[in-house]
């Protein structure tokens, strides 16, 4: 039943992200903590986890905030599913691997979001907005994941195996 | 390729993706009451968000009050002078108002300005992504909020419109969102245009005719062609540009509301019936 912690953590991050994250933006761009968490879990646990978690996290965000239902979920699903598939053949617990995946993943995530916005008849300067928002967010997200990934790994171990205590192991 | 189609997981993934695209196409650009499950999720999370949003407001108030201590005296003096000036102006305007009323009565002129019915609401959270500018408020269908109502900030400047309504909460599309467009008018010259958002938190007024005489500093309000009550303040013109090769002018508008520090908003509950 410890799996429920995972979902509670996602809900907590969605709430924090929509209320307090406006204080930590850089050039008006906020990092995406929910995206980082879902990607990390997909990297660690594979493609099934990617589908469950991205549906859960994406739909909550879409229902609460977006007018077009599915914008966040669709891009999150694709990116984390690809991550889940690729994670079979790499060393999953290295922070560097996570760094690379989050960086490229954020770019792809924003690209898919922009394409769905084009379909919804949004008008924007594609290259400029991509550099202004997606690039900055990719750098920001991947810097964050370097520092938090080891905690996500031990949290994941704690959730998956019932023997190890998360709090004892990570020296809190 | 055929190997993929035997993979159950991949088929499920494709089905979900197609369903999401269908959901997107069905719900974008709509104003509606949300379905029961959506409303329930919002009802559970809105109180939690409200708490955290309050905490955030407290933190930023604390820091901004520290920053302002030094300049309080100067600001106070400036405001005193402003009050004096406004008092005088107010008396003059009162005279004009009376005169106007008398003349209207003499001419049997029907009064056009309707009173605004306002309802106070608290913001509970902002869109976590970077592409959309929407936020949620803690009043919904139960309090009489309907899709398409205008939202004002504490000072009465327009900040957006209600798009989707749950039982106890509602989503608001900011004026500065790319998807938002409001029919607007220049108060001084009566030039009509459409105000849209850009991604950088500013506003732009498009579809202005070439002979439009609006200049920097003009006030822009909602026009009586919009579905909102007319005369809601949107912002000030900060630049007028002519697109080369185009037969229309554009104006860059500086929004009157401070979208970064919104905490409480008013919902304008009277709406013009457009027959839609």
Description of the molecule:
The complex is a heterodimer of chains A (172) and B (276). By secondary structure, chain A is mainly alpha-helical. Chain A has helices at 3-19, 33-45, 47-65, 71-86, 95-119, 126-160, 166-169. Chain A has one domain (29-159). In chain A, α1 runs antiparallel to α2 (33-45), α2 (33-45) packs parallel to α4 and α4 (71-86) packs antiparallel against α5. The longest helix of chain A has 35 residues, at 126-160. Chain B contains four helices and 13 strands. In chain B, a hairpin with a 5-residue loop joins β8 and β9. Chains A and B meet through α1, α3, α4, α5 and α6 of A and α2, α3, β2 and β3 of B.
Element pattern of chain A in H and E: HHHHHHH
Q: For this entry, what is the oligomeric state of its chains?
A: heterodimer
Strand-pairing-aware structural class of chain A = mainly alpha
Q: Which descriptor suits the 3D outline of chain A?
A: globular
The unreliable regions of chain B are: none
Average pLDDT over all residues of chain B: 83
Sequence of strands across the biggest β-sheet of chain B? 2-3-6-5-4-13
Strand content of chain A: under 5%
Which key phrases capture this entry?
heterodimer; A: 172 residues; mainly alpha; 75% helix; 0% strand; globular; B: 276 residues; alpha+beta; Thrombin, subunit H; six-stranded antiparallel beta barrel; six-stranded antiparallel β-barrel
